[in-house]
Amino acid sequence: MIKAVLTNFLDITSCFLGSGYRIRQNDNKTEIIDSEDDNADSIDKIADEIKVCRNCSLGSSRTNAAPGEGALNPLVMVIGEGPGEEEDRQGRPFVGKAGQLLDKMLASISLSRTTNTFIANVVKCRPPKNRDPYPEEAAACAHFLERQITLLKPKYILASGRVASQTLLKTSENIGKLRGRCFDLAAGNDTYPVLCTYHPSFLLRDESYKRPAWEDLKLLRSKLDS
Ligand code: URA
User: Fold this and answer.
1) Taking the mean position of all CA atoms in its chain, how far away is CA 219?
2) What's the 199 CA to ligand 1 centre distance in angstroms?
3) Which residues pair with 182 in a beta bridge?
4) Of 48, 87, 135, 148, which sees the most CB atoms within 10 A?
5) What letter would DSSP give residue 211?
6) Nearest to 99 by CA among 110, 115, 83, 76
7) In whole angstroms, what is the distance from residue 125 CA to residue 102 CA?
8) Cα–Cα–Cα angle for 216, 114, 82, nearest 5°?
9) Has residue 8 got a pLDDT over 60?
10) Ligand 1: which of 166, 201, 204, 205 to mutate, judged by most atoms within 8 Å of the beta carbon?
11) pLDDT digits over 53-68, tens only?
12) What is the DSSP code string of 144-182?
C-alpha cells in the first residue's frame, strides 16, 4: 500500500520534473534519475559494445576482445597495436611478455595501469597470427578508441610502436623517425599530445633499442611534470 502511494507520488513528481527525469525502482530503492545518464557514454559501455562487436572479420576469429583497462582519469593513455595470443585468451591488453616489459617501462617513470595509466589498442581483437591489423580493421575500430580517448581525457598519449603511431597520426613515416617526437591528435572536441616510442615486443627482439626507448620515457615524464 505504502509502496503504491509512493510510486504514484513519484510518477506525479516525474511529470513535474519534466521528461529529462525518470523514476527507477530497484527492490527497496527508489531513485529519481536524470534520464540523460542512460545515454551517457562510459568506459564500461564501450567495453560492452566491443565485446560483442562484429564490425570487422576479427570479431569472428577472436576468443575474447580486449577493450582496454586502467585508471579512469589517467595521466597517460598507452595505445598499442592490437591484442596478441595471451591478450586474446584473457581479454585484457598487454598481459603477455610485451605487456610485462611495458609494465616495467611504465613503472620506471612512476606510471601503472592500477593508478594513473589506461592501456588500450588500435584494434580490440587479435589479428590472426599477430599480423598487423588491416587499415579497414583499424578504421572499423577507430570510433571505440576515439570514444575512449574523449572520455578518459589523458594528459598524454603514448603511442607504442609503429602500427599505433602510424595509425593514430595517419602517416607512413617509419617509427625510427616518429619516436621521441610529440604530435597533436584531435579526438572529440579536444587535442591530445602524443609521444611515439618503440613497441615493447620490438625491444624484446632487439635490446639495443632499449636506450632510445628509455630516452622517450624520460621525455614523457618531463612533459607530465612540466
Ligand atoms: N601488443 C600490443 O600492441 N597490444 C597488446 O595488447 C599486446 C601486445
Assistant:
1) 22
2) 9
3) 195
4) 87
5) H
6) 83
7) 19
8) 60
9) no
10) 201
11) 999 999 999 999 999 9
12) HHHHHHHHH--SEEEEESHHHHHHHHT----HHHHTT-E
What pLDDT, on the 0 to 100 scale, is given for residue 34?
52
Q: What are the grid coordinates assigned to 81, written together?
A: 597495436
Place of cell 602524443: 194
Q: Tell me which of 50, 87, 137 to substitute to probe ligand 1's pocket, judged by most ligand atoms within 8 Å of the beta carbon.
A: 87
Backbone angles phi, psi at 19, to 5 degrees: -75, -10
Compute, in angstroms, the gap from residue 96 CA to the centroid of ligand 1.
Answer: 8
pLDDT digits (tens, 9 = 90+) for 61-117: 999 999 999 999 999 999 999 999 999 999 999 999 999 999 999 999 999 999 999
**Alpha-carbon distance 211 to 198, whole Å?**
11
Residues in the chain: 226
- Any idea what DSSP says for residue 123? S
